[in-house]
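Researcher: Next entry: Long-chain-fatty-acid--CoA ligase (Achromobacter agilis).
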Amino acid sequence: MQLPYSTFSEHLDALAARQPDAPLLIDQDQPISAAALRAQSRALAAGLTRIGVRPGQRVAVWLPNCAAWVESFLACAYLGALVLAVNTRFRALEVADILGRGQADWLVFWPGFKGIDFQGILDGVAPEHVARLQGVIALAEARESPVVHGKPAHRYADLLATEEPAPPAQGNAGVLCFTTSGTTSKPKFVLHDQRTLLRHGAAVAGAYGYDAHSCVLASAPFCGAFGFATLVGGLAQGAPVVCAPVFNAAQSAAAARRYAVTHTYANNEALVGMMQAAAPGDFASARLFGFASFTPALDHLLDLAQEAGVPLTGLYGSSELIALAAGQPRDPAEGEVSARHQPGGALIYPDARVRARDPATGDILPHGQSGELEILSPSLMQGYLDNPEATRGAVTADGYFKTGDLGYTLTPRQFVFQTRMGDSLRLSGFLVNPVEIEQVVETLPGVSACQVVGATQAGKIVPYAFVLLDEGAQADPAGWAAACKAAMAGFKVPAGFAVLDAFPSVESANSVKIQKHRLREMADALLASAATPPSP
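Model: Predicted structure:
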């Protein structure tokens, strides 16, 4: 499927002309037709113009999955403004970073959403980070009047009611910035233009089998690459996208039945929750549910999917390549189907390519050998906003994106993702995926979850295990080490075990991500302490 348009306004015009009454969005059980979405986004564009939003300005959109998020994005695309997508989970430091480093000119937010103290969060942002802001737009009731560092405040509903027509539509330009997760450094702003996003939506619709009867459930936030890819695939096809401001597993399962949902894409934790909460028959219409493995310990996902009759496949994507850039095939004609329940996939663009490079030698590796994945794809970002040096460092001379992920190829277009390169371990000369060790440790008595990192001991890298215990269980480091020695090569056996109440983590748009760098620091400190003789 290819779209003849390079801007969202052109595509929305075509959809509204072709299927004006067909729902494009179902927001909290309220269907919004193509014609209505076009009218609302154009009215908002007129209102934004009236208060001073201009082409090239940057609009931070701090909203959950709702019609206002989609309308705000489409209005900015129409005006040639750039959307800085902000996660509703973010708090003062993270919001300050996006508003400040992202150089936001405007902020759209929902003061009363989910009981979050947005006003308090914004009050906690230092004035220098909002110095550039020209004003805020609030989804607020008439009696509410948010005050953000003295900036002019405008009600979203008032902008929609603007009587002046919208100005002429702008052409293709940078329109959306995702933020990287920033687990080890400050997030980068990943810039995409309209043509790339629309083309990707069309590629998603074609690769995952959308047709006139498709219905897509948005299980991830639109502010992240995962959720946005879900949205843009539906928009490209003209298939309805079902969304709600807050993800609820039971409500999502019920929505799948109510709207005959055919496709959804989620992290495996969310899918497990949906399947556990579902009533028999909720997923009868399912054609393909895709998962990204953010929580590898949830290995019962496959059993639940089989019980529910849900066709399941592994996915891959990133902010830089956009999510759903690859999905494991279920048809032998499309690739190696034995990998369908592993993260990664066959690239959805026919001309896309993947390779693995040995991080030590720089050599391109044969199929089946693990190295850093490099991907050539039409979905590649325009670059990192305001950061040309990082952009140059992210792409090879022949145009491949250096993913920073460990994996191996099966063909020039299909691969398996294993872990982040920074989380992989070089042990005794071998490149080891820590998940191998974690899965063994998680079978040991008393262990409910495990994270393994590389730590330094006597000048070499060794694995170190952090565990969470089952309720009432006692730690048994000696017993665990003995069991690991019996099950694994000696260089994979953890040099130590530490029990935690919870793993350190940071929230991203798609999931809660464990901060491995903090665990590495803790492991180094524990090993150093153990090696230091007691004072006399």
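Model: Note for the record: The first helix runs from residue 8 to 18.
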